[in-house]
Amino acid sequence: MTLNTFTDLLVDELNRRSDEETFIEHKSIRKNNGTQWEALIIRKGDSRIAPTIYLDDWYRKYRDGKEIFELAGNILGAYDKMLEKIDIGKGFFLSYEEVRNGLYMRLVNAEKNEEMLKEVPHRKWRDLALVCYYRMPRETLDYGTIQIHNFQLACWGVSPEQILEDAWQNTRREFQPRLRPVREVLFSIREEVPFAPVEDMPEMPLYVLTGKEQYMGAVCITLPGVAEDISEKLNGDFYVLPSSIHECLVVPDDGSFQFKTEELNAMVREINLTQLTPEEVLSEHVYHYSREKGRFDI
User: Is the domain of 197 the same as that of 166?
Assistant: First the structure.
């Protein structure tokens, strides 16, 4: 059974189980890098809260042997739990002051998100773009995020410049960039990857840059003073390998890492193909920081 047929049958079963005030809509949702995710939007009555149920996992469960009626019951149960978590005040997202302190920046690929950038406030950074999102309070929905669009600015009566500046200041204040040796990072995650031979790894001049929560942390490389601090720590120029939207790898350009730029670019593409989902990819090439010039070049 195809995903479309599965979705049609699932929507029919959900409608059969729901009351007349429940509205269920199938949508293709555009995510980062132009990827499309199939989802169900479920809304009750005139509620402004309409949780999104992505279908990939549910379709996988169906192909593994679960019945449509069983999945429909599980989805409605998950929907109710999401509503409980997103129990927020009526003024939420109607007032800019309600969301102002929860706005942050993330770094995305400008070319792959060309269509999205027409609809959202953003700033360019080299061949990438900084876009603004709202992060739900952790006690409400951990790592739940809402992309900010231009139409929301009109509702709030704020300019793109204001919302970008507020998100920028929040990001500067709270992300707290961290540069750590790769070996140290592997030690910290060895419980999750018990087979990683950390003790046998040679010392490498390779570092990981991310934020304190390691979520959307690639943006840290754009923050004021970060590149200068890295250059000071490494005592010279360096390369940034955009390993995902969540972190970057940093390599000193001092001859200790015997790779040419083309080989580093190949490493980035290999990471993109083998280690990341399509929506986690940030760029296809490295960025070089010149300490003398005080800037990044592609």
Answer: no
